[in-house]
Amino acid sequence: MGLNVLRTTPLSLFSSNTKPIFSNPLCSSLFNIQSTSTTSFFRSQAVSATPFGVSSIHNQNQRRGFRGGVVVMASSAPGSVQKSEDEWRAILSPQQFRILRQKGTEYPGTGEYDKFFGEGVYNCAGCGTPLYKSTTKFNSGCGWPAFFEGLPGAINRNADPDGMRIEITCAACGGHLGHVFKGEGFPTPTDERHCVNSISLKFVPADS
């Protein structure tokens, strides 16, 4: 049911030809391995899935809903946060810079929000733009936070250079979030999994 890491290589040893080995092909999200909305969705329960299908992008109508009393819309216009790499280095931690600006990946199962299911909103750790509502988060068992949809207009999608995966970035600042996959068999309203690095996110509680 859950996806377990069988053997991994320390983060410092990651390279283009060194990858963790997983017990299930669904755990391929951020490691270049091949591979939507209802309030009743069981976010905290690990779900089983059929073998994944081909990742693709489908134009879908964006939904604006009121879930769990949290109402948030992305407020920053696409590309509205412009900084030089030196400016980003000055305001981000080394790990944030490596992932958000250099498209790095955090070690699976170590992220702050992997198994976290508090009520609130996940903002971009780089520019503060709201990206995901907590009611769209689910436990994919893959080692990274998973969401079945982002806030309307908050997420950009672009094919990786090799065409194998679809990268997702913050529409406001371009910060790297992770990758999105579709057709993997998860029982979510959109049948999508936004596989996101915890370091790319900053959680804001609903009661704050």
From TrEMBL:
GO terms for molecular function: metal ion binding; peptide-methionine (R)-S-oxide reductase activity. Signal peptide: none annotated. Its EC number is 1.8.4.12. Pfam families: SelR. Keywords: Electron transport, Metal-binding, Oxidoreductase, Redox-active center, Transport, Zinc. Residues 85-206 form the MsrB domain. Its cofactor is Zn(2+). GO terms for biological process: protein repair; response to oxidative stress. It catalyses: L-methionyl-[protein] + [thioredoxin]-disulfide + H2O = L-methionyl-(R)-S-oxide-[protein] + [thioredoxin]-dithiol. Binds 1 zinc ion per subunit. The keyword Kinase does not apply. Catalyzes the reduction of methionine sulfoxide (MetSO) to methionine in proteins. Plays a protective role against oxidative stress by restoring activity to proteins that have been inactivated by methionine oxidation. MSRB family specifically reduces the MetSO R-enantiomer. Belongs to the MsrB Met sulfoxide reductase family. This is Peptide-methionine (R)-S-oxide reductase.
